[in-house]
């Protein structure tokens, strides 16, 4: 199949999704094809993450605090360089992800404190031209998680993934400041199936006004 080299419409694209949805893989493919600057979350550097999956009550606050400070530092360094937008940026996370996961994982007292810190740090970041959410049902996420073989992820419960998904959808319904595209992937493997990948490109490379939009692959 002939590869589509047409320029992307959106200069700053953020790809979100549940654990195992394929967001980082898609970002790498899109960046390689269109020479966009690639901004990936360094989640493996969080020393609390393996402990969190074994004992979430004890390690929820330090794991979320570490994620927030590291994401803020990375975004401040990368998005503060305005000349980068001349060739485009694609990122595999939005800073608000910090708040969504924290709300799901922290107790009410911890979350209130965390929320105050988040809003202070979030004030200066530009909004993406398109927020793309790759949606897969929870039962299709679990095989992906097992296949990539991260030991600390193997005990993730379906209920936890369902909670994360709901947190994203609640955020989308309350946000009208940016274009949000929910793309239902179903069981499509866009890595093995190039037609599926180029269909994804066709869908995202459209103008979307602010608000929530939903398409199926």
Folded structure, characterized:
Keywords: ATP-binding, Kinase, Nucleotide-binding, Transferase. Residues 13-204 form the Deoxynucleoside kinase domain. Pfam families: dNK. The structure is a single chain. By secondary structure, the protein is of the alpha/beta class. The protein has one domain: Rossmann fold, CATH 3.40.50.300. It contains eight helices and six strands, in the order E-H-E-H-H-E-H-H-E-H-H-E-H-E. The chain has helices spanning 23-34, 49-54, 56-79, 97-105, 108-121, 138-148, 158-173, 194-204; strands spanning 12-17, 37-39, 89-91, 130-135, 179-184, 211-216. A six-stranded parallel β-sheet has the order 2-3-1-4-5-6, sandwiched between helices. Strand 5, helix 8 and strand 6 form a beta-alpha-beta unit. The radius of gyration is 17 Å and the shape is globular. The two termini are 18 Å apart. The mean pLDDT is 90.
What brief labels describe this structure?
217 residues, alpha/beta, Rossmann fold, six-stranded parallel sheet, 8 helices, 6 strands, globular
